[in-house]
Amino acid sequence: MKLIYYGASEEEIAYIERWQFIHKTPVTIVMEGLSWENIHLAAGHDGICLYPSLAMQQDESLYQRLHILGMKQLSIKSTGVDGVRFDWAQKHQLTVTNVPSYSPTSVGHYTVMSILMALRNIPAMIKGKLDRRSVIGRELQDVTVGLLGTGRIGAVVAEAIYHMGGHVIATSRSENPRLKGIVEYVSFETLIAASDVLSIHIPLTKASEGLFSASVFEQMKPGSCLVNTARGGIVDTDALIAALAQGSLSGAVLDAIANEERYFSVGWDQNPYYQQLNQLPNVLLTPHIAYYTQLAVQEIAETALNNATDILLEGQSANTIAL
């Protein structure tokens, strides 16, 4: 058995090499993401690990070619699988797996930091607004923090904010029993109207795409802040820019913005949305790094490789995504 690992970062290489030594399974490491320019490298391999490229959202023939090359699976090295066309994967008999959880504390703690930075007006100070009288902040015990989603990451955020003295409300598909006595579950309408800081912790799906629209921003509490460490496509960025410029929102801390996947290889700051948002004094942008810790990178690489071998050897994986 031989695997190929596309889109490997320099930080992943040591963990990939360690895994192949332990499992005595050769892994070909490709630094670039999967494309027509390098898909031929998959020939002679049994399994594939990758992060879905923009081409995979646009070109069915990539899936067809992988099938012709003998691939039976796509081991996606992330939690989010919004970059995969499941209809094409199913058509070409490719089982899709993901990494459902990699150090949820990495994103959770980063989110807590982002919430605190928003409340203390750190984005404005980073942009050079150093008049201390104009950047007076707010404390957790005096605000309501709203969470959209209370899964693994949302739960970490909820527990931390609660134990730091904050009042936490949330909207989620189901109530997390782990958060009993910590979170007050409310409707989405109440969540956006009552939150001083609203943090997003849901996946990007057809239903959630553009969920934070102009009408939602109009219903949000005046002077509230938005924190997004999930997926940029959940937010209508044009509507967000308008709400920030008009002052109905007091600020935003964003680790994910719309269309960012198109700019990872050419420079995140080349994204027109980044350029527009970065001009606003009350916005702090980071390049999708909330997850990016040594432990998380290790768990991503090892789980992706394990998923691939599970499918090849057992025909199934605990992390298979239903098509």
CATH topology of the largest domain: Rossmann fold
CATH class of the largest domain: Alpha Beta
Low-confidence blocks of residues: none
Number of domains: 2
Summarize the structure in words.
The structure is a single chain. With 323 residues, this protein is of the alpha/beta class. It folds into two domains: 3-101 and 294-314, Rossmann fold (3-Layer(aba) Sandwich), CATH 3.40.50.720; 104-285, Rossmann fold (3-Layer(aba) Sandwich). Helix content is 37%, strand content 15%. It contains twelve helices and twelve strands. It has helices spanning 10-23, 54-58, 60-68, 86-91, 104-119, 122-126, 152-163, 188-194, 214-219, 237-246, 272-278, 294-314, and strands at 3-6, 27-30, 47-50, 73-76, 95-97, 144-148, 167-171, 183-185, 197-200, 224-228, 249-254, 283-285. The strands form two sheets. The protein has a seven-stranded parallel beta sheet with strand order 8-7-6-9-10-11-12, sandwiched between helices. It has a five-stranded parallel beta sheet with strand order 2-1-3-4-5. Helix 11 (272-278) links the parallel strand 11 (249-254) and strand 12. Helix 1 (10-23) crosses helix 12 (294-314) and helix 5 crosses helix 7. The longest helix has 21 residues, at 294-314. The chain is elongated. The mean pLDDT is 94.
Question: How would you sum up this structure in a few lines?
Answer:
With 323 residues, the chain is an alpha/beta fold. It is built from twelve helices and twelve strands.
Keywords for this structure?
single chain, 323 residues, alpha/beta, Rossmann fold, 2 domains, 7-stranded parallel β-sheet, 5-stranded parallel β-sheet, 15% strand, elongated
